Each structure stands twice: as C-alpha cells, then as structure tokens.
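Lecture 7 notes: from sequence to structure.
We start with the chain below.
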Amino acid sequence: PDEYIIHEGTMTGCPAKVPDYRVSATRVEIWPGDKLIAYNAKFWLKNTVIFSMAKYQKSLRDDVVEFPAVGYSSRDGAYIIQHLEYPLGDKIAVYTDLGYYSKTGYRPVYGLINREKDYTLGVADGYFKDADDRWIKKEPEFRLDLFRRPLGGLPVNYAFSALYGKWSDSAKSSWHQDYNLYLAADPVKLSDTLALKLGTGFRHVRESYDGSRNNIFRYDASLEKKWSPRLTTLAGYHYITDNRTLFDYNRDELGRQFDLGFMYKIDRMNSIGYLQTYDVANNRIYDQDVTWYRNLHCWEAKITYRIKRSELRVRLAIARF
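Predicted structure tokens for the same chain:
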C-alpha cells in the first residue's frame, strides 16, 4: 500500500498517441507523496531519446519537471534550465540544476540532499535567483528544512528552516546564517466561498561581513473569495518589522504592503491573473503584474508583464505528471 512498482513502463503528462515527451524505464518505484526512482530511464521528445540515465530520481514533494524548461526575462534574457537527480541510497541523492541565460551566462547548481520523513538536510553550491531576478552565489550552503506539521492539538501548523553558508554577490562575500520559524493557522471558512488565512513568523539573520544581526517578525492575513468556478479574488496585508538585510536576494522589499488580485479562467485552455502590490508606508502602487496562463495540450506557458518595472517574463515547460 505504500509503494507502486511498474515494469517496462512509460510516464507522461501528454495524452497524444505519440507523446510530445515521455520517460521510459525498465523499472519504476513510486512512493506516493514522496518520490519516484526510474531505472535505465530514457527521456524522449516524440520519437527521439534526448538523454538517458542508469538511475533517475524525482521528488514528488517539489515543483520540478523532468525535461528542460525554456523562457525569457528582461533582466537575464532567454534561458534554458534542467533539473537532474541521481539517488545514492534510499534517502540520499545528488542533483544539479543546469541553467544557461543569454545575458548572465551559465548558472549551475550542484547539491547533495538527504530526504527524511519529516525533514530534509542538504548542501548546495552554485547560483540562485529569487522571484525578482536577483542573484546570489552560495559557496556552499548547508540547509535544514522541517516539513510543515501541526502544533500540538491546535489548528495551527509550523515550519522551520535553518541555513549556514558563504554568500557572495558582485560587491561582497559573507558567511550567512538564517533561521526561519513560521506558524500558519488553518484557513477559517467565513462562508462556503470566503476563506481567511492568518500567519506569523520570526526570522533571525547574521552576517560575518558587517557583524550585523537582524530579528525580523512578520504578520500575514489574506482573504480569498471564490465568486464562481471561473473567478477568484484575493486581498492580503503583510507587515514586516525590519526588512533591512545585507543582501538583496530574498529580501522583503516592503515593510507594509497590501495585495489585491484576481484569477479568471477564460476557458479550458486559458486563464488570466492580476496582482497589485500597494506600498502602505509611502502611499503608492509598488507593483502591478498581469499573467496569462496557456495550456498547450502537452505544455504549459506562463507570460507575465510587470507593468511598474516594464519587465517581461515568459516560461514554457511540460505539463506535469
């Protein structure tokens, strides 16, 4: 009941008679909600094998795809990225994230990870990019992540992470310590279509570069309203006590912000989303993002235009399976 085994199998998220992409293997072991391991795995585009691995592992907890994803961003240019993972045992694996960007060049990541039932422990070396296209070099970084779990018998979950490593950007290097504890209450259903989400967290950051120590508290509240099967709206308020950090990477840009957005499903293949971020402290609109989601049968396309920054982002990847 805890494991599935497939012999001489093929996996794909494409229903075409000859799938656009697929992974074939002599044996596949699947632990639902955890991971899968494919032996003698071959990766196909239509009828062509693009590469093969004697053993390939994929985490079913993470949002990763087996095939290269391509895209474009105004800051980094056109890119192609690929995640590969090879198991060394039941719980330990080596992996790489290979990425090439036309403006910033080759940006690889190499790592070793140990996945346990309740946590992951790993070390990684390479280039990392955050949601705002800000880069950092980790040389290396050790990281512990405890999975979200209930807090006693309360309707609250908590998650914890700790990391230590050498961070470098174009101007400086620092031994960076970062500890993060976050508590999230179970969604409160105010009605059948309206839900309130509350959360709070504490983050402690230390830097060897300037000897700084930051204690950062955050409070989050959001309302999600489902007006119809097609239309959902979101409103959220976020308060951070101190958003000053040595590095821009993964930094909260606003101390107080109000988010307002919606997602509308136009039809089976197309959806459009809008998200506006308001800087409460300075009484101004900070960001406005419009995103078009397109289902291309076997592929997924996401196009975002960041109006306030005049930035375009495009990403094309396989439909997940």
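Points to note: Residues 206 and 229 are 46 Å apart (CA to CA). The two ends are 20 Å apart (CA to CA).
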